[in-house]
Amino acid sequence: MDSQKVDLFMMINAKYFESHHLNAVREKLLSLDESKWGLVVTLQFKEPSTSLIVSLMGGQLGIDRFMIGDTGMGVGKLLTCGGFGVWAIIDWFLIMGATREKNMETFQNTFY
Fold first, then answer.
1. Which Gene Ontology cellular component annotation is one that this UniProt entry carries (predicted)?
2. pLDDT above 90 covers what percent of the chain?
């Protein structure tokens, strides 16, 4: 794929991935065929900042985990009221990273 298109994608979407994943994303995009550009542009990623806000507001109910597609942990938080509050507080620090990891999974499942 054209390096200018890849650079554009990276500038727009870098916030959705962990910093150590950016090089792998770039390399994968460079190795793709030009016909895949339409698919690349239509990919939708979860916003880590939104996940943090939802975690602050509804973390005890597991809404943050349901939102990023982590239903098992969402059910666990829902049934235990956020791990009796402890799990909800821990997720305030972990949810942005978890969201970025889920975004990387989405990217990998699309092209690998």
1. membrane
2. 93
